[in-house]
Design a protein that fits this description.
The protein is mostly helical. It has 2 domains: 70 residues, no CATH class; 161 residues, MetI-like (MetI-like fold, Orthogonal Bundle), CATH 1.10.3720.10. The protein has 14 helices and no strands. α7 crosses α9 and α13 crosses α14. The N and C termini lie close together (10 Å).
Length: 310
């Protein structure tokens, strides 16, 4: 286990370095800089600003300086934001985005699993068609469309939920629903397919033939194996929730890092763009590692295969 974790840690660091490098290169490949779009700044003032932020230095020097700060866990200072310290900005926005993302992910997984089980147990009947109809809608409707509909219905028409502010659990309901629908639909379809496959296996038929209660066979045996594929897609689901938060946080005016990242791109705030790439990459790499470890715990065959490889 220690060897595996060490190997994955090295691979994650290499992946993170590649992402940072590509982001840095692509960011500087676009013509202009953070100050060229501001017509109010004189050429002399623009040159002074570039010198102050080190943008007049060769790209190799800027890249080396950024990596040096990053090793010290210093994300630098924002060029355009009023709050200059990026570490502080991330510390303020990350808990907000984490709460929203966790709520959406929990809703997607729990409701998706329940919907998939209902659809599988009611195969080719009304509940199956209804559950899969909900899943198809969830996959087809973009999150920003759903967010707009939720605001119109629940905030404007019915006035049961607030919008445009942040502070209590009621502010998280609509954005969490908008973020959760697509992954919920994906999990529901996955669980339905996996559950139907497990219910057709010989061990399920044998257990039922021995007289075991159907509920015990389904919940104690078939369901556990049917949930294994869900563990493998938690990483991609997390990525979907994180990227979806870029749009949702802007629509609902949520003070998270997703909104910061979008604003940094429109402002061409180089340090903040790189910091967003670093934070999201670290979150995704950590989540993928956690998913792999969880899958190894749930499926003994993975642990056995790992021992044979060693």
């Amino acid at each position: 286990m220690i060897t595996y974790l060490a190997r994955r840690a090295v691979m994650s660091l290499v992946t993170l370095w590649v992402i940072i490098t590509l982001t840095f290169v692509l960011m500087h490949a676009v013509p202009g800089d953070p100050f060229t779009s501001d017509a109010r700044v004189s050429p002399q003032a623009m040159a002074n600003l570039r010198a102050y932020y080190g943008l007049d230095q060769p790209l190799v020097v800027q890249y080396a300086r950024y990596l040096g700060r990053l090793v010290r866990l210093d994300l630098g200072r924002s060029i355009k934001s009023e709050v200059r310290d990026i570490n502080r900005m991330i510390a303020d926005g990350l808990p907000v985005s984490a709460l929203l993302g966790l709520e959406a992910l929990l809703l997607a997984v729990t409701a998706g699993v329940a919907l998939g089980i209902v659809a599988a147990l009611g195969h080719d009947r009304g509940l199956d068609y209804l559950s899969m109809g909900v899943a198809i809608i969830g996959i087809s409707v973009p999150s920003f469309i759903l967010a707009t509909l939720l605001i119109h219905l629940l905030a404007v028409k019915l006035e049961v939920l607030p919008v445009g502010t942040w502070g209590t659990w009621r502010h998280t309901v609509m954005p969490a629903l908008a973020l959760a629908l697509a992954p919920l639909a994906y999990v529901a379809r996955l669980v339905r397919s996996s559950m139907l496959d497990e219910l057709s296996q010989d061990y399920v038929k044998a257990a039922l033939a021995r007289g075991l209660p159907r509920s015990r066979v389904i919940l104690g045996h078939a369901l556990r194996n049917a949930l294994l594929p869900v563990a493998t897609v938690l990483g991609p689901l997390t990525a979907g929730v994180l990227t979806g938060s870029f749009v949702i946080e802007n629509i609902f005016a949520i003070p998270g890092i997703g909104k910061l990242f979008v604003l940094s791109i429109s402002d061409r705030d180089y340090p903040l763009i790189l910091s967003g790439a670093v934070v999201y990459s670290v979150l995704l790499l950590a989540m993928n590692l956690l998913v792999d470890l969880t899958y190894g715990i749930l499926d003994p065959r993975i642990r056995i295969a790992g021992r044979r490889l060693r």
